[in-house]
Specification:
Layout: H1 10-17, H2 23-35, H3 37-57, H4 66-75, H5 79-82, H6 94-100, E1 110-111, E2 117-124, E3 127-134, E4 143-145, E5 149-155, E6 157-160, E7 163-166, E8 170-173, E9 182-183, E10 189-195, E11 199-201, H7 204-213
Antiparallel strand pairs: 1-2, 2-3, 3-10, 4-11, 5-8, 5-10, 6-7, 6-9
Helix pairs in contact: 1-3, 2-3
The chain binds zinc ion.
Amino acid sequence: MTDVNHHISDDLLMGYAAGALPQAFDLVVATHVSLSEDARARLTGFEAIGGAVLDRVGEAELAEDSLEATLARISGVEPEERSAPEQSEGIFPTPLQRVVGGDLDAVNWRSVGMGVKQAVLHSGKDGSARLLMIPAGQAMPVHGHRGLEMTLVLKGAYSDDDGRYARGDIEIADEEMHHTPIADAGEDCVCLIATDAPLKFDGLLPRIAQPFVGI
Ligand code: ZN
């Protein structure tokens, strides 16, 4: 089991339990939950609370296990799969494997410069989800955020002003935050990232490159 040090917040986990997160964030949380016993335990609690609230609304209005069915409809994921522990071979937990169509070797990477590669998994009005591979020892350009950015580490590790993030760790960045993630030396870092708005790069060159990179 992965030893997670940076956990997801309760409000995001509750939003996930309610099926209220945009698709890109839903994928990151589902993947994080697969890697974190702590997140799984808290999620189970929130789902129980949600079920209890709906029970009180009355059985006349709601069919048996309609919360679960509703959650499944919203997210497109079966309830038992949402909180399933990590089972898959390789480095991608099951929810991510399903989207990618395999593990790391199935990813359709595109180079975005400086040795960094990305693969966009989902792009819509509500946000985007992508995989990013940062070469060992490489720094990402310093950037701010126009909205929310959620980063989950799948392989290797990176550090920024707020600490070091390794497999299973999740980092939330918002408009207040400017950071320069630097991958650990010795191993390429692979992350799953959801954003609800384009990033705001500080340097001139990255800003020009941004429309092409699409991040
Ligand atoms: Zn960021």
